[in-house]
Design brief:
Length: 476
């Protein structure tokens, strides 16, 4: 993704760029946004320039050089940025970046440049894990693996136009792929009407990886219920799925022709996950998990239904399978993830509702927002969704929230404002979630907001406990 240098000119048209230098400063152009901003200080980083000008920019670690989500590609004007520092050089070597790929938080600009943000959505972040997989060298990893297969799609394919079939497939993959990405999983492949997700490429610990896979599997089931309401009205189709979850060793590496290698996983664990998925047909279940997977979870985490020993195709002896019915105790992070889609189904309406409630409660707060409120609403939604995705990567989230708090202190936000914002968010939550709202859902979101505000206030006060990070297990 980041190493393709087709059609890029890092030096750019020097004469054209020199013309963009004035006594006031120089221009930074964001390619896909078709937006230019004026930078007056030649010691500013690309990320600082974006933040000051309300450019939405990924920065999961808060611009501390601890992640690579703020990366950009310098399309023109590479000679107008400072050389990579030690942090950037380390990242670039590990990931095999070409010279035009830079960390926005570390790259100081000295003159006009044209850039392209490489990560534009939160769901793209999980794909960055592929960069750490070395070409031509396999590595054994213990992964949690999800296979999800659409059950009753063949009759629909036979009776409908090809464009409608592709339309439904894309909606299916989008809806059911999101829980995988939201839990720091990687969508490994699509095979026909099947989607495969893997968890654990970053070695976050077997328990955390299996918890993430469990949230993803249950999230896929919940997402399908929402999708079915729409497509049943539009196409008369109700999709059914079978989901298999397993944990075990595989070989991870780049495979294929040297000029066209792709990420691949090879090993019996992947085959077992596929066979477990197929067993749902006979057991008339939706989600089945192996004993090996459930053993990685904290004790009494999973609520199980049917339990059967099943002879899986190609395996010697029977395999113990369990129907995965949910969490034994409600899981805050899962509840937040499950309702995120409904909350942000109309981002404009969400932002309008929130700011109307905030300004009604605290009219003086209106003076803190001097820019375009529609733009501000988009940025606020962007920040909230980023927080939800980041909770599955706790090593980055603490730094990110603290930096956000420090930045909001510069905007004039004080400690008393957090309570006002919290109340406006919770009241907006109830209105926007509609039938998805419940007291337990509210509690999960309250805990998520409280966690975020806690770290933001630490950042604003200058307090920081190095290495402290939330552990999203039974709670957010």
């Amino acid at each position: 993704m980041v190493n393709n240098i087709h059609n890029y000119n890092p030096a750019g048209n020097t004469r054209e760029f020199e013309n963009e230098i004035s006594s006031q400063g120089f221009m930074v152009e964001y390619n896909s946004l078709e937006k230019k901003i004026l930078v007056e200080d030649n010691n500013t980083t690309l990320l600082q320039a974006a933040i000051r000008n309300r450019i939405p920019h990924m920065q999961e670690c808060g611009g501390n050089g601890r992640c690579t989500t703020c990366r950009v590609k310098i399309l023109e004007g590479l000679q107008n940025v400072a050389p990579r520092n030690e942090v950037e050089n380390l990242m670039a070597r590990r990931r095999g970046w070409d010279p035009a790929i830079r960390l926005a938080c570390q790259t100081r600009i000295k003159g006009p440049v044209k850039v392209e943000r490489q990560i534009k959505t939160f769901s793209e972040i999980s794909r960055l894990q592929e960069e750490m997989i070395k070409s031509g060298k396999g590595e054994e990893k213990q992964l949690a693996i999800i296979f999800c297969d659409m059950r009753n799609f063949t009759p629909f394919v036979e009776g409908n136009m090809a464009y409608d079939v592709v339309h439904i497939l894309n909606r299916f993959f989008s809806a059911l792929g999101e829980p995988i990405l939201m839990n720091n999983g990687l969508i490994y492949q699509y095979v026909g009407d099947e989607i495969v997700g893997v968890f654990g490429l970053e070695d976050s610990g077997h328990m955390q990886n299996c918890l993430a896979a469990m949230r993803a599997a249950l999230g896929m089931k919940a997402a399908l219920e929402v999708l079915n309401k729409d497509i049943q009205e539009e196409f008369g189709l109700r999709i059914e799925v079978g989901i298999g979850v397993h944990f075990g060793p595989v070989i991870v590496g780049k495979v294929g022709h040297p000029s066209h290698q792709q990420f691949g996983i090879i090993g019996d664990a992947a085959n077992v996950a596929s066979r477990v998925q197929s067993a749902n047909k006979d057991l008339q279940t939706t989600i089945l998990a192996t004993d090996n997977f459930l053993c990685q979870l904290p004790k009494d985490t999973a609520k199980v239904g049917k339990a059967e020993r099943v002879q899986l195709k190609g395996k010697r002896g029977a395999t113990q399978l369990f129907e995965l019915a949910g969490f034994r105790k409600e899981d805050d992070l899962f509840l937040v993830q499950k309702t995120t889609g409904a909350l942000f189904s109309d981002e404009g309406a969400f932002a309008n509702e929130f700011y109307a409630r905030l300004f009604a409660e605290a009219p003086e707060a209106r003076g803190m927002f001097k820019g375009n409120m529609e733009r501000q609403g988009y940025l606020m939604g962007h920040m909230l969704k980023g927080a939800i995705y980041a909770l599955s990567r706790p090593k980055n989230v603490t730094l990110g929230f603290r930096e956000l708090g420090r930045r909001h202190l510069e905007y004039g936000v004080r400690e008393e404002h957090y309570l006002l914002v919290r109340k406006a968010l919770i009241d907006t939550l109830k209105v926007r979630l509609k039938e998805h709202y419940s007291p337990r859902i509210r509690l999960a979101w309250e805990r998520m907001f409280d966690l975020a505000f806690k770290f933001m206030q630490e950042g604003a006060s200058g307090k920081s406990r190095a290495g402290a990070a939330p552990k999203p297990t039974a709670g957010v």
